[in-house]
Amino acid sequence: MPWGNSLPQVMVAPNGARRTKDDHPNLPITIPELVSDAIACHRAGADAIHVHVRNNKGQHTLDIGLYREVMEELKTAVPDMLVQLTTESAGMYSPSEQRSILPKLGAQSVSVAIREFLADGEWESAGRAYHQAFETGKDIQHILYTMKDVDLLARMVAKGIVPSARLQILLVMGTYGGTPARFEDLEPLLSNVDKEIPNTQLAVCAFGRLETRILSATFKHGHNIRVGFENNLYHDDGRIAKGNASRVTEVLHFISSRRVDSHQT
């Protein structure tokens, strides 16, 4: 499928900023592990990967050198897989640091949590960072956790701080280590986003064990999905997944078999 102005249908988020090998032995931490995971997930049906890199202590980092390294490795190993780099702070980077990093990222696709980017209230600075990235051809996926985030992005678009063209959103359901996503919240959230920010390219990810069913329903609503160990380690039947590729496989199986309902098994 063409990249550029279109979101991939199935993005895998294999590790995130916080989980470790203690959470799952097959969580990819090093660049070789990320590359191996990307190959397996691409074979399973994922057409993009959301990348977090770690330093030599296994900690989250936005190190440009490591990003360049992983981009080169992934370009060689999975040339047809879109690579998205994160700007997530994970409590380690200030809004100004995140904004300064954004134009330096070599990837076509980057993700930005607007609540982090605007945590210091510097709307003008955020606007400059967004427009600079946009002008260099970057696609920015705006990470929204709550309806307050949706309202904030709508205001940013209305004020011209965020370019309205090629507008991409990832709607996050549930929270890490906290509230799991609920199936019954999906349709109201999708309807609200469509009302507040129409004509956007929308994707959904979901924390917790209802990930499979929520993402399957999302796909059938015509939206894209993000799946993987960053959000959930378990299959729909409660078994812990062997790896990210098996999570991709299960979600795509649910989509193809139309096994979507609102009841947890």
| Overall mean confidence score, pLDDT | 91
Strand content: 15-25%
Query: What is CATH's topology name?
Result: TIM Barrel
| Architecture (CATH level 2) name | Alpha-Beta Barrel
Computed structural class: alpha/beta
Characterization of the model:
The structure is a single chain. By secondary structure, the protein is an alpha/beta fold. It has a single domain (about 10-255), classed as Alpha-Beta Barrel (TIM Barrel), CATH 3.20.20. The protein is about 35% helix and about 15% strand. It contains nine helices and ten strands. The strands form two sheets. An eight-stranded parallel β-barrel has the order 1-2-5-6-7-8-9-10, surrounded by six helices. A two-stranded antiparallel sheet has the order 3-4. A hairpin with a 5-residue loop joins strand 3 and strand 4 (about 60). Helix 1 (about 30-45) packs parallel to helix 2 (about 65-75) and helix 8 (about 210-220) crosses helix 9. About 45% of the residues are buried. The model is unreliable at about 1-5 (pLDDT under 50).
Chain-wise SSE layout:
Blueprint: E1 10-12, H1 31-44, E2 48-51, E3 53-54, E4 60-61, H2 64-77, E5 82-86, H3 95-101, E6 109-113, H4 114-117, H5 123-135, E7 139-144, H6 147-158, E8 168-173, H7 186-196, E9 201-206, H8 211-220, E10 224-227, H9 244-257
Parallel strand pairs: 1-2, 1-10, 2-5, 5-6, 6-7, 7-8, 8-9, 9-10
Antiparallel strand pairs: 3-4
Helix pairs in contact: 1-2, 1-9, 6-7, 8-9
Task: Give a brief rundown of this model.
The chain has 265 residues and is α/β, with parallel strands linked by helices.
